[in-house]
Specification:
Helices cover about 40% and strands about 15% of the residues. By secondary structure, it is α+β, with helices and mostly antiparallel strands.
Length: about 200
Amino acid sequence: MDAPLLVFETTPVPGVPVEIVQYLLSLPDEVRQGFGSFLLDSTVDGFDGTPETSARLWRDELQRRCDDATARPERLLTIEEVMRNLRDHLAQLRRTPYLTHLTGYNCYDYFTGGWAERGHYDEASRTWVVLPLSELRPEQRAGFFAVGRAGVDGILFGYRYGHRGVWALYPVDQEFKHLAPNLSEFVQGWWAGTITV
């Protein structure tokens, strides 16, 4: 058995135990190459849940990939492709907001200004323009942490990775618009009608 190319103390792939990652990377080339995207697929919904559910999904998916590799060896990835894809995907995950890791998002005011506890409900538009933390369903788009919504056209309010201030995300065009330097000024401007989308 080949030695692992990389050794991790903690899992580099959220939702996949470090032991599984180390095992997949320790497989011989002709086997390992067929499992590279398994590490990426394991980050999607469905691999969350109880340990029993996750274990069954990992087992079933590994078996499916074994069968596929046996039937179509010409589709196997090279180890270089596997590692390049994994590094690219991990870089994207670092820019993807989760409540457990928001490094790179300048959202300090959301958590320290009381907004995370109370949010802000706008009576005029009958919309939670700032949601309390208990109601957040963070957008998993890379580079945007949504904390509120406009109530029309799916427009979201939040923080962009590596940028300051509050932004609007227009999901149809995937465009951003800077709205205010902080959440307090955003809410005041929204209430006064000086900030619109």
